[in-house]
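Dear colleague,

As promised, here are the two records you asked about, laid out in our usual form so they can be pasted straight into your sheet.

NAME FIELD: protein one
SEQUENCE, THEN STRUCTURE:
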Amino acid sequence: MTDRLWARSSIIISTMLVLSGCAGSTTTYTPPSTSIPNISNETIVDTSFDKTWDSYVKELSQSFFVINNISKESRIINVSFSTNRPSDYVECGSTTIVSKHPSRGTQTFTYSAESSSKQWIGVEGTNHILDRTRQTQLEGRANIYIAPVNELQTLLRVNARYELKINEKLSGVTLHHQETNNYSISFSTQETGVTLDGMTCISKRLLEQNLLNLAHL
């Protein structure tokens, strides 16, 4: 066999081996490494109730929080919030996806489960690829309790309720496929949120701390 025929035969054989390979992917999820942070969600302010209330409402009205209800008589303020950067306030562990494809090889994607991400996935047992895009958004509400301790001190306590919303889109690269999945996970300051498939989320308590800090400005 001539060198040219051998080279051509080698190319054909190599191409057949590539095409006969299979795509696929494996997913590994690791929950948050820490339990609920040991950070207090209350503080004592060394000013009277009336002075603390007026000052706090002034600062809160200038923040990114939306005031839904406010009642000095019941000593409760309810606010809502929304962010496209959930990782600032909650932690949901990490996910690692190892994708393989005959022509693309093997690639590893690792991302924080609470954050938006994008990767490609090999369809198991085929030579097909899907693009996978995750968009995450964090929404929620917080109750702020403000009450006098005595004539010169005031107590502030914050409890938040979070909802992490996840929008997942799969689109075909080498085949016609479109799929959208929407799901969410809810939990509060004192809780650990867990989905049916085992995803776990906790509050970093930074949002609660930010609300408490307004009393000291």
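NAME FIELD: protein two
SEQUENCE, THEN STRUCTURE:
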Amino acid sequence: MKNQLLIPILFFSIACDNPNGEMYGDLEVFENLMEVPNTEQPAPPQEDVSEQLTKKVVKTGGLDFQSEDIEKDYRIIREMLPQFNAYIENENQTKSVHRISYSLTVRVPSGVYDTLYGSFSNMAYRLDNKYSNIEDVTERYYDLKTRIKNKKALEQRYIQLLDKASAVKDILEIERNLNQVRTDIERLEGQFNYLSKRVNFSTIHLSFYEVLPYVYDSSQRPGFGARILSALADGWQGLLSLLVGLATLWPFVLLTVGGIFLFRRVRKNRKK
């Protein structure tokens, strides 16, 4: 009786899972499933009620502060992390004439996030910015987990059908759908693993800096002789620029000279 009910159920399930809406034409594939003993039928997975009630959150925080001795604070942070099983994921250092700064991304187990976050806050010489965020991802976490479980169950059904299929058309169609299901499983597992890492390890962004005292650097200022030579070179360049500018005015100079010449000649003729 159970085997007779299994045929329409599997037939309807595969028809729904098929993205093209096509049913396999060879009914022998489904009829052969009746030969599978009841003891080999996969049992429905048992839900873990306690795990369903576990809240999943992602904690993210950050601190921006001024340091009195940045190298000392950086060393303290490095020595502090192993005590919390934390580690630096990203690190960046910048230095200029006026300041030196560090930018760190720290990953810490969620259970000790608050303790480490408080320790970092106490290190600040002057706190510029402080923020902390808790994101509830419980629904998304268990949704991905359920979708992966359903996809894997569908994968097993396709494998079972593939073992019983005899027609080439059915084999090719089952393999195509099986490959698609496995691709979906890999994609969902990637999302689930990334989300699980964010749940298990919280993130703290640290940005701290030290203002450096002003130091006059006389080596950057040229000597007297160098400045004299630079002035002479600038004057020569200015003279050349003037000559070049005058050269561009030669048509106007030629017209002016010609006009003066004609004016004097006309005036001379009138006197005669």
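A couple of things worth noting about protein two: The longest strand covers residues 99-109. The first helix runs from residue 2 to 17.

Best,
R.
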